[in-house]
Amino acid sequence: MIQKSSEALSRRAFLGMAGAATGIMVLASSCDKNDDNMMNNGVDLGSGDVGILNYAYALEQLEAAFYTRVAQSPYNGISASENALLTDIRDHEIAHREFFKSALAGAAISNLEFDFSAIDFGSRASVLATAKAFEDLGVSAYNGAGKLIVTPDYLTLAGKIVSVEARHAAYIRDLISNGSFADNTVVDMNGLDTSRMPVDVLAVAAGFIKTKINASNLPR
Amino acid sequence: MEFLHIINEIEKVDPEMPDRLSDRRTAMKSFAGIGAKIGLAALPFFIGSIFKKAYAQSGPSQNVVLDVLNYALTLEYLEAEFYAMGIAKGTALVPAGAPAAAIKTIGDHEAAHVEFLKTAITASGGTPVSKPTFDFTAGGTFANVFSDYATFLAVAQTFEDTGVRAYKGRAAEITGGGDLLTAALNIHSVEARHAAHIRTMRKANGFGDVKPWITGKESGIGSVVQASYDGEELSTQAGINIVNINGAMISASAATEAFDEGLTKEQVLAIVGPFIVQ
C-alpha cells in the first residue's frame, strides 16, 4: 500500500515535468534504471527526496550496527560514564534507523550487511577512531545532502538529526583528545563544518558495507 | 500512514521546482570549479554572486534568505561578543589549560561566523545588520556572568543550544537554497559541537548534570533558561512515535535525545531579548 504511494509520488514527479521535453527522457532513463535493478546492480536508494531519505537510512543502519556491537562487547577498560554514553549513542542511532524505516515504509531499502572486521572491538583506540570517523562522516553527509532536499519538512527532519550526530562527534572526539570537538580537521577558517556529497560519503562508508549500494539515481 | 502524510507534503511542491533545481545545479557546478581555484577566504563573495544569479527569478526569495542570514548574524554577534568578553577576563574567569583553550576555539568560530555572514549578506545584495549593544547579565539575571565560571558556562550552554535550535528552526525557509543553505548547515553543526563540549565542561565541573545531548527539556541550569529547552521533549517525529519504535528498546529519554528541535524566530528573539539593550 505504501509502495503504491511511492510509485504515485514518482508518477506525480514525472507529471510535474510532463510539459518539458526532458520529462519523457527522464521517464525513459528511469525505466532503464529499473531494469538495472532487476539485474542486481546493488540496492537502489531511489531518486528525489525518497532517495536522500534512503541514503540517510543506510548511514543510520551503519552507525546503529556499529554501536550495537560496541555495546554488546565494550572495549577493555571502558569507564562507566563512557559505557553509559556510548549506549545512549547506540539508542539514538537505532532511533534514527527505525524512524527512517517507518517513514519510508514500502519505499525503504532492505537491511544492509556490514563488515566490521577492520575494527578491534576490544580496543578503545580502535572503537573510538571508528566512531569518530562515522560521526564526522554522518555530519558531513547530512550537511551535504541538505541542498538536495526539495521538501522543507524533510530538511527540518535532517536538521533535527544532524545536530545530534554533531553532539556525538564532539563527545567522541573529546574522548580521544579533550578539546578536539571542533578542531581544524573538520571546521574550516570560516568556522564552517564539513559537508560531503553522497558519492563521496558512500565511497568512505563502502569499506564497512558488504551490500552493494546503487546511488546513481540520487539527486546531484 | 505517516508516510502518506509526508507524500502529501511532497505533492504540494511547485511542479516547476525540478526545472529551477536543474538551473541552480548548473550554476552551482560552475561555482564548484571556481571555488577550488579562488580559495576559501574569498568564498562568500562567490557564493553571493552565484546566489543572486540562481535566485533572480525563482526559489526562496532574496528577502527571505537575507532575513535568515541577518537573523543568524545577530545571534553570532551575541555569541562572539560573549566569548570575547569572557576571554578578556583571563584566568579570573576561565581556568588556564583545556578550559581556556576550548573557550578560545569556540570564540574564534563565532567571530569567524560573524565575518562569514557579513560577507555573504553583502555579496548577496543585502546589508548586514549592525551589532546590537548587549547586556550579558540580562538585566541582572546573570549578574556574575563574567566573574563566576559556573554562570559563564551556564549562559554559554544556553546560547549554544539556542543557536542550534535557531538555525534548525529556519532552515526550511531556505530549502533549495544551494550553497548558502549548505553554509548555514555547516554553521549549525559547529554550534552543536560547541554545545556538546560546553555541556561536557559543565558536567565535569559539577555545574550541571547534563550529557552532551539534551534529555527531555532539561537544561541542568534552572527555570531562568527554560524557554531555551521547552519543546525539546518531543518524542514523536513526523507522526511516528520514537519510544520503543518497531520493538526496539528506545526509552523516552533516548527518544527525546535522538532528535534536536527547532525554535521559531519569535521564540528565539524572546529568549535573546533580555540580552539585547538596543
Compact overview of the structure:
Chain B: InterPro entries: Ferritin-like, Ferritin-like_SF. The complex is a heterodimer of chains A (220) and B (278). With 220 residues, chain A is mostly helical.
What does this protein structure show overall?
The complex is a heterodimer of chains A (220) and B (278). With 220 residues, chain A is mostly helical. Chain A has helices at residues 2-16, 21-38, 48-72, 80-104, 124-145, 152-176, 198-205; strands at 43-44, 213-214. Chain A has a single domain, classed as Ferritin, core subunit, four-helix bundle (Ferritin, Up-down Bundle). Chain A is globular, with a radius of gyration of 19 Å. The model of chain A is unreliable at 1-39 (pLDDT under 50). Chain B is mainly α. Chain B has one domain (60-275): Ferritin, core subunit, four-helix bundle (Ferritin, Up-down Bundle). Helix content of chain B is 58%, strand content 1%. Chain B has a two-stranded antiparallel sheet. Chain B starts with a helix and ends in a 6-residue tail after the last helix. Chains A and B meet through helix 1, helix 4, helix 5 and helix 6 of A and helix 1, helix 2, helix 5, helix 6 and helix 7 of B.
Low-confidence stretches of chain B: 1-42, 44-58
Q: Based on Cα principal axes, name the global outline of chain A.
A: globular
How are strands sequenced across the largest beta sheet of chain A? 1-2
Distance between the termini of chain B: 48 Å
Count of the domains of chain A: 1
Kindly, what is the distance between the CA atoms of the first and last residues of chain A, rounded to a whole number of angstroms? Answer: 29 Å
Low-confidence stretches of chain A: 1-39
What is the succession of H and E elements of chain B?
A: HHHHHHHEEHH
**Residues in β-strands, percent of chain B:** under 5%
By DSSP, the count of extended strands of chain A is: 2
* Whole-angstrom Rg of chain A: 19 Å
Architecture (CATH level 2) name of chain B: Up-down Bundle
| Oligomeric state of the chains present here | heterodimer
Largest sheet of chain B: 2 strands, antiparallel
- Fill in the CATH topology of chain A: Ferritin
CATH topology group of chain B: Ferritin
Question: Could you give the count of β-strands of chain B?
Answer: 2
Class by alpha and beta content of chain A: mainly alpha
Q: Provide the CATH top-level class of chain A.
A: Mainly Alpha
